[in-house]
Amino acid sequence: MKKFLLLALLLVSIGCQRPTEFSDEALQDEFISINQQELTLSSILTKHKGEKILIDIWASWCRDCIVTLPELKKLQNENPDVHFVFLSLDKSKERWARAIDLLKIKGDHYYMKTGKKGALGKFLNLWWIPRYVAVNEFGEITLFKATKITDKNILKALKIK
Predict the structure, then answer these.
(1) Between 8 and 19, whose confidence is greater?
(2) Residue 32 and residue 38 in contact, taking contact as beta carbons nearer than 8 Å
(3) What is the pLDDT of residues 130-152, one digit of tens each?
(4) What is the per-residue pLDDT across 95-104, written as a single tens digit (0 to 9) for each?
(5) What is the spatial distance between Cα 161 and Cα 159, in angstroms, rounded to a whole number?
(6) In sequence order, what are the beta bridge partners of 143?
């Protein structure tokens, strides 16, 4: 019985670990920039190498994404050293582009070409948005999952006081 309990405990603890780097498949997932350029997650992260990044997965139809924009903009203003990368799950590129302009969301914007069923969505086990992922200056994932912009773990993961 003790061996069974130890094995169960070990399996649970392994399942609770969060990755510190993106899978090769996720890095090759495809996105479209606001100016219609196709690129991979790897190239997006390379563009911001050496910077703290907060990835915000959102959509213009997502009520929770929209109502928390004031808190997100406050976080942006208070932390100019953090780069914000927005990945959209919008149903159309046109609605996505309109929402960015209308809502005046600052940062780098990309449309998730493969959606939540793509390699990144699967890697993140993406089932709810908004979803926040923090990446440090070395490209390591320091926060795998947050669903509220006010989550204190975001500041900790980005080492913001």
Answers:
(1) 19
(2) yes
(3) 999 999 999 999 999 999 999 99
(4) 999 999 999 9
(5) 6
(6) 134
Residue carrying the six token digits 């320091």: 142
In this predicted structure, the answer to whether residue 26 has a pLDDT above a threshold of 90 is: yes
On the CB side of 95, CA atoms within 13 Å amount to 10
Q: Are strands 82-88 and 52-58 parallel, antiparallel or unpaired?
A: parallel
Supply 52's token pair: 């703290």
What's the rounded Cα separation, in Å, for the pair 153 and 60? 25
Q: What is the pTM of this model?
A: 0.87
Q: What is the pLDDT, as a whole number, of residue 2?
A: 57
Whether 11 maps to a domain, the answer reads no
Question: In the structure, how many helices (H) and strands (E) does the chain have?
Answer: 8, 7
Q: Does the residue 81 lie in any domain?
A: yes
CA–CA separation, 155 and 153 (whole Å):
5
Q: What is the dihedral of CA 138, 135, 38, 111, to 10 degrees?
A: -170
CATH number of the domain within which 113 lies: 3.40.30.10
Domain count within the chain:
1
